[in-house]
């Protein structure tokens, strides 16, 4: 069926709708992902909540959807926009085709779109709202949703995994399974807690360290949580990833701002001033920590994006707090920075040893 | 960290003459290295005896040595130039092997030359299988069960332990030469013996075969801070078992999940890091299609054919960046030269699909064994880019210039389904077309998968194409609707193919298509999937979506490239195309280049202002001309490929400068050609045309034996035969299916052959030198040894040569560049052939005389007169005061079944030159790599049986003995070839036994001569053990000085 992608700047693209279109139209922020593999991980990454995702690689769905590479229990994107997809997944693990999977979750799949042309719109004019409809008439754009997407993706009950020696509390703003996996692989016990869990509850869990997860949307939607977050990170060795990293900055009084079109892909170069080399990282963020605003905090910038010099991570000079804007857990994307987890756990162990001997 | 300030001069080793497994890709990487380092201010000293390369232009290096690529020769150069650094990772396996030997022999230390980039230890580990396996074991990276063996007994023991199939890989050979997969003990022993013989260190790796696994490659780069990136990964459509050089390859991988992609990527990064490579590296994996198990197959610690492909596929110039890393830069401080907005420390994101097809030589060698395996056989390759897989495959197929009509290979239609199934199981160059033919006949994807192990994903693409092909056949031009035509075009069906099935002309399809608004748009290759703005005009077409072409108000000239490298049309055309671009840019034009060969310099996006990676078909070329609104089109530098497009483009109203279809036809149509020569009073050999077999015998008699048979339009002497008697003709007609009628019958004059390359402005001509062939006429010019300036011509003969050239040019009002071939017989100069285009000898003539023919020709094509462009007032320049010897280089040992006998059909893949003060020294240099390898060998076997004891043969024997070599005639040949004394085999006979002997000699790497003159040349050089080395710059200076001396 013919369908149309309307962008807020008035541009329209005709394509083919491969699935049903719930309520006859769907809208959301249009973002693009440049990785050439990893669509299954992207679709199920909670950070993409409410966004319509454009894949720049033209053939999406080649290897289908399997049972293992999910980053959460369900897809979170609002719609999927590609050039081509196949009727079948060609892989020994494939269980569904992309279309079957999206249809099952009622997520529209729009194909035969000149995705490169869409990306160029976003690149030059910045991220914008978009709408998929069955008519070439654009109609009105609904104002950007003000709801907090985190509530929709984060858990509401505490969950526990593993039984390792280090006990890490993973504060869930919409965590990716690979973060949990990275901790479990390193023999941690992990307690996943809702994002609005009180400091007292966390204290009662007696964690050895805290991990602030990734999550969707503007970090400033979490202003009310900042004081709790500040208490947590000042009290426990902390690793913060993506949204978590932005929250650390906000909790210390720094500022965040929206990037023109975000970093979403598997090839973002990040310079590590400690290891003195560049790593390829997986990224998915639309907001970033304002570099100047960090001057008023004790934080030291450790990681910088080679392309646009934006802040990719920092550490506290005296407290065991490390935060990264990129995704060291990979999935999708390169695993070059997984050692961040080792560094974090080493810190956790060191702090615990100090406490024991203190 | 900025560049190394301790270096002043750098020696770069090139890869030498083109052979299968080591081709134009090293000219591309070497040229990039020269440019990248030259712009840093280093003095560049380059050694490469391949004259057809662009890297050996005097502008790319401060001193260019056309000297033998041997340790001895390199030591002389080092002693003379005293370079501070050596860069060896840009000259293929040749470069690595030389660096290794220079290190081992202490020569690098002696001359205090620092090896730049990848350290010697890494080269050793990457190349020495034992060291490599040990390292992989330490890293925990799986390699297939394997053993290094140096004798057959150990090999048998291994085979008994692990079972078959087993792969045999000889150490230190090019393109996997000498290896193979054995399924039985008998086959295994044969291959092991062969492999041991071919390996310079008598060593083979034998390993459990993982044939059928997915073959995945990564191009990895690393700098001295240990920052590692993978530029690209590639998936072979043909699973493990077919050499990657002979496989259909796609980029990026299509069937790997993110988990698998990054599992292999992480392994690649770990390996390059552990090896300590600085620069580029190619890593090949075999991945089980049914699990996450993988094996490492190969690591090449240098730039390679794959890195050239990856550079063109992504836009990331690996060699250029690798050269910068070698002198101390880091990835993060180098700008991405495509976007000019981001840095080199990133991994390209593609938003298109790339397909590479190999170009195999079996159209020229139908009798050779065309089965594909671990030994590479392709001479070249084509690359295609599109937004979808199907059109990318189709574009690649259109770029091959094969006998296929679209997806249909007519010769397969005659085969039975059973035969086709056998063909795809064994895999040869026709596999892709055979699979399509099976689908056409209704065979299932599953059947084909079972036989080939090709992934269902790709087979599904192939089947989609057949479904669409049927759709096209079911409709016709009147009835086809816009939607169907749009789909057909988007998926790559050419106007030519549609015209064929709809039985209309191609231009009618074009008109119809355009009337429906179906025209291609052009998309950019920008390394970043449009995430960043890009400055580079590197485009491919798509019949879908938005057009991205940037406007330009400059005058635009299009240069049509020469497509894939094949026997008869090689890298020399790329040289001319690139030079034409340089000249156009000097003249202030916007240069637009179209080509489809990923190995070449012409398809470096930094060469022309705008690069189009497209098939060289009428449709695709005209599309670019229309989209760009091209003012002028140049076809003289793109070999026969570009010439073949002239008629169509001219009819479409395109402004082609310098040559018209009528001129080409006058020169190519024999009747018209002879008429032209007769009008000009130029002698030509007598000739007739036979329309059928009956006429053939009658007219052959009329012309008189010996005769030369040839089809009317030829490249590289394809389908040419010398026939000495009626009996021979009868045998030929009976045995050969390659005589196509009408066939041309020429008297065959066994005279002296010469040729010239000239530039002309319609009136005046300039001939830098006359080239004289060593062998008598009858040996294809590409396969003959040649001397320039000519050594044995009388003044009268030279005058005739020049006069005839002038007459032809004036008669045709010809502008640009032209090649004329002559034969001189009984003091009469005959014109054999006139090519209205650049020829194979253009780079040699240009470089050794200092006259840049292609550049001058370009300026003349733009309308200038000779006197505006050059100061020279004569038609033929004075002889240069040195001897240049051009020698052919063959890859025959990679093509089982091909005889090394030279004749009218070209067989060589490349060429080299040597320059010296005497012919003896030049000959010594030409044969130096061979002779120095042969140590004390001193026997020459003469295949005499039945041969007349002519005076010439007796003379030859005398010469051999004078040179203190031994003539062998009696010993059983099988015994002789294995003797360490065996130096060369002289075989004049054409019968079965001689052919078997030549193949035997070939397998033992014994030099074989099949022409008397070549053997004489070899003997000339044999005792000239000492040779001196000089750069071309020095030779040209010497030339200038002697010229001055004359004037004074």
TrEMBL record, chain A:
Nucleotide-binding among keywords: yes
Pathway per the UniProt entry: Amino-acid biosynthesis; L-arginine biosynthesis; carbamoyl phosphate from bicarbonate: step 1/1; Pyrimidine metabolism; UMP biosynthesis via de novo pathway; (S)-dihydroorotate from bicarbonate: step 1/3
Gene3D superfamilies according to UniProt: 3.40.50.880, Carbamoyl-phosphate synthase small subunit, N-terminal domain
Residues at the active site: 242 (nucleophile), 327, 329
GO molecular function, one term: ATP binding
Pfam families for this protein: CPSase_sm_chain, GATase
Enzyme Commission no: 6.3.5.5
Subunit-level organization: Composed of two chains; the small (or glutamine) chain promotes the hydrolysis of glutamine to ammonia, which is used by the large (or ammonia) chain to synthesize carbamoyl phosphate. Tetramer of heterodimers (alpha,beta)4.
Record's protein name: Carbamoyl phosphate synthase small chain
Organism listed in the record: [Anoxybacillus] calidus
From TrEMBL, chain B:
Binding site for ATP 2: 710, 747, 749, 753, 778-781, 821, 833
SUPFAM superfamilies assigned: Carbamoyl phosphate synthetase, large subunit connection domain, Glutathione synthetase ATP-binding domain-like, PreATP-grasp domain
Binding site for Mn(2+) 2: 298, 300
Free-text cofactor note: Binds 4 Mg(2+) or Mn(2+) ions per subunit.
Binding locations of Mg(2+) 4: 833, 835
Entry's Gene Ontology molecular function annotations: ATP binding; carbamoyl-phosphate synthase (ammonia) activity; carbamoyl-phosphate synthase (glutamine-hydrolyzing) activity; metal ion binding
Region (Carboxyphosphate synthetic domain), start-end ranges: 1-401
Pathway: Pyrimidine metabolism; UMP biosynthesis via de novo pathway; (S)-dihydroorotate from bicarbonate: step 1/3; Amino-acid biosynthesis; L-arginine biosynthesis; carbamoyl phosphate from bicarbonate: step 1/1
Keywords assigned: Amino-acid biosynthesis, Arginine biosynthesis, ATP-binding, Ligase, Magnesium, Manganese, Metal-binding, Nucleotide-binding, Pyrimidine biosynthesis, Repeat
GO biological process: 'de novo' UMP biosynthetic process; glutamine metabolic process; L-arginine biosynthetic process
Residue positions binding Mg(2+) 3: 821, 833
Residues binding Mg(2+) 1, per UniProt: 284, 298
Pfam families linked to this entry: CPSase_L_D1, CPSase_L_D2, CPSase_L_D3
Binding, Mn(2+) 1: 284, 298
Family: Belongs to the CarB family.
Function: Large subunit of the glutamine-dependent carbamoyl phosphate synthetase (CPSase). CPSase catalyzes the formation of carbamoyl phosphate from the ammonia moiety of glutamine, carbonate, and phosphate donated by ATP, constituting the first step of 2 biosynthetic pathways, one leading to arginine and/or urea and the other to pyrimidine nucleotides.
Quaternary state and interactors: Composed of two chains; the small (or glutamine) chain promotes the hydrolysis of glutamine to ammonia, which is used by the large (or ammonia) chain to synthesize carbamoyl phosphate. Tetramer of heterodimers (alpha,beta)4.
Protein name as it appears in the record: Carbamoyl phosphate synthase large chain
Organism of this sequence: [Anoxybacillus] calidus
